[in-house]
Design goal:
Strand content: 5-15%
Order of helices and strands: EHEHEHEHEHHHHEEHEHEEEHH
Shape: globular
Strand order of the largest sheet: 1-3-2-4-5-8-9
Structural class: alpha/beta
Helix content: 40-55%
Number of helices: 12
Radius of gyration: 20 Å
Length: 367
Amino acid sequence: MTSDGARIALDWDADGSSNNNFNEEQRQAVKGPHGVPVIILLHGINNSAEFGYIRSMMNSCTKRGWIAVGMNMRGCGGVHLATPRGYNGAYTGDLRSVLSTISHRMVNLDVPIFIAGYSLGANLITKYLGEEGLAGTLPKNVKGAMSLGNPLKINSNNLKIPWNWVLAAGIKTGVLLKHRRAFQQMKCKSFQEKMHSALMASTLGALDDHASPCMIRNEKHYPFSTRVGFDNGQHYWDDSSSCHYIQHVSVPLLLMLSKDDFLVSHVAEQWLPHCVEMNPNVMFVESETGGHLGWHFVDGNNPFGSNPFGRGANWADGCCCKFIESVILMQRHGYYHEEEEDFIEKRNVISSRRGRAAGKVSTELPT
C-alpha cells in the first residue's frame, strides 16, 4: 500500500521457483528476513513485470542465488487501480514505498538491494536515486542500480512517428479505458473533462498535456510529499526528466543504451556527456546494436541461436549481473564505503560553493 492508498503488485522469484510454485523454503525467502541480495526490477511504459526482458533478468538473478522482485507500476500486473491516479514518469512515491518495505526485511544493512529500471522505469529509478541522494535518505541497503534505455530528458512531443501514436494508444487502452471505473470515482467536472480530452488525444504529447493537471506527483525534496497536478505537459516533462537528478545519485549506477535505440537514443545521447561528467558514480555502456531493450544475441554458428524462434540469451542481463557482483565485491573489500564517503564530501563542497555564490546553501535541482 502506498501513501495515497494505491496497490502495487510485486512478482517474487527465488532460486528454483517457477511462477507461483514455491516450496516452503522459497516462500520463507520471500517473506523475509532476507539474507541474500534482492534485485528489484521496474518495467517500461505500457508493460508489466510479465514481459520477457523482466523475466529474463529475474531468471539470471535467481540462478546466482539472489532474490528477484518484478515491481509492477500501479494499475499494471493484473492489479486494478484503487485510486483515480495512474502511473507516470515523474512520481517516485510507489518505488519509495516498495524500497522502504523491502529494506526493513533485510537481515542487516550489509545485505544489498539493487534496482534495475527499463525505459520509463529506468528514468524513474534514476530520478528516485537522485532525490534520495540529494536528501541523504537513501535506504542503506541500496548499494547500486542499473538504468537501461533511459531517455534522460523527457518530452513526449519529440517522439517520432509512429511511436507518439503507438504509445498514446497503449496508455489509452491500458490505463484510461482499462481502469475507467477508478477514474470515474472523481466526480469533479474539470477532472472528467481533462480525462476525456486525454482519451481523445492522438499523440502521447497531447495526452500528457491534457492529463498533467490530474497526475500524481511528489515534491522534489524530503519528505517527498505526495501532491496532485502539474501546470501543463511541459511542467510534467521537466519534473520527470532524470537528467536533472542524476548528479545527486550516491551509489554506483550503470547506464546502458544502444546506438540504434529508435525510441530514446536521439535524445539521451545529447545528455550523456553531462550526466557522466557530473557524477563519478555513473558508468556508461553503449552498444552498437540492440534497439530499445533488445539486447539478445545468438550463436554465430547458428542463425537461429539456441532458441528455435530466433531469440538468444540477453546480453544486458549478463552485464547487469557482473556489475552487481563487482559492487558486492567492492563492498566486501571496503572500497565501496570509501567511494561513498568521498562522493558525499565532494557533493557537500559543491553545494557550499554554490551557496556562497548565491548567499545561501543551494539545494535546488537544475532545470
